[in-house]
Amino acid sequence: MSFFDKIFGGKEENLQQKSFWKKIESEEDLEKAIENSYHQKIGIFKHSTSCFISKTVLKNFEKEIENTDEKVELYYLDLLSHRPISNKIAEDLGIRHESPQFIVIENGKAISNASHQDISLSQIV
Known about the structure:
This protein has 4 helices and 5 strands; from the N terminus they run αβαβαβαββ. The protein has helices spanning about 5-10, 25-35, 50-65, 85-95; strands at about 20-25, 40-45, 75-80, 100-105, 110-115.
């Protein structure tokens, strides 16, 4: 990995996924997540693996999660690998696409969404 890839993130980056994330990699995964929102609030983190800002926001958000006792259901979407799913989220939930973005869903509807430094665990707890 080159110096610039370390700073800005390379396309071959292998993010070490934290155990609390449930990946969304298909429309079926998205449907299950939305279905789960009828039982409890869920959060979807839309992340661009090639963006330094997105990477920084993700790391800060993960630190926030690791330092809480709250039990929340969190989903992770790699925007570069699954852009059609990201577009579907924006269309189905009626929210503008941003990256990074954290969307809180309850009863099948987006009740909160934030981007960049406005992303916080307090949106869902």
